[in-house]
């Protein structure tokens, strides 16, 4: 099929299938879990980056929820970058070499990632009352768990707080899944759990519990595991890019504090010559970092979380 089936029929049901939204052979799996009682529609996507396996496994488990548990509808697209998933691609869609999470709101006449972004923006997001785009730290990325939300959207921040991770990142900018949904009036969040493509019962459990808390917040389920009793930090994130290619040597571990102007890593050549020293423009702490030894020019090196001035 080229379009998703109706998401609200008024009857408790589970529907599984594949949708082929583009003029090619890529089939995207989907699940619709509709409850016996009316309620909001929560859209959950994963696999925007095809090797972030914690997010994908979490989405696959959500597809098994019983309709009798729900009010409203759960719409799950567990692997959006299907070819990237099978090819173990880092960040990009193999069809065009572009990062899908930079292509929004997309272009119906563009390359594969641009057309997929357009389909999501024009045909999928309008179905939802709230949105969770699950991520899990790609094959070359270590991270401490955090949840991103569009800074200008109070309803999105409420979803991030409900999800329950200890760090919440207020984001700006365009080209992202959340920004595109927000411009349609749909609150959304992007949780990041795990890293380096790894997944296990602990990380999938953390992410699943967060989704359930959001569903409880929306009135879709009656109960959910409470979040850990620890204070939440709301931050912005500064992300330096590599000025040159070479070998990356980070100087800071995850969650370690950083002073303004402090060296957070070096890029060297194969003989040890320092090609670039990266100094932090902000004081804060390390949210994520590139874990591969190899780095190419313009790749993101790390993220520094700085307390949000409210």
From TrEMBL:
Residues 38-218 form the Succinylglutamate desuccinylase/Aspartoacylase catalytic domain. SUPFAM superfamilies: Zn-dependent exopeptidases. Keywords: Hydrolase, Metal-binding, Zinc. The keyword Zinc-finger does not apply. The keyword Hydrolase applies. One of its GO terms (molecular function) is metal ion binding. Its cofactor is Zn(2+). PANTHER family: BLL3975 PROTEIN. This is Succinylglutamate desuccinylase. It comes from Bosea caraganae.
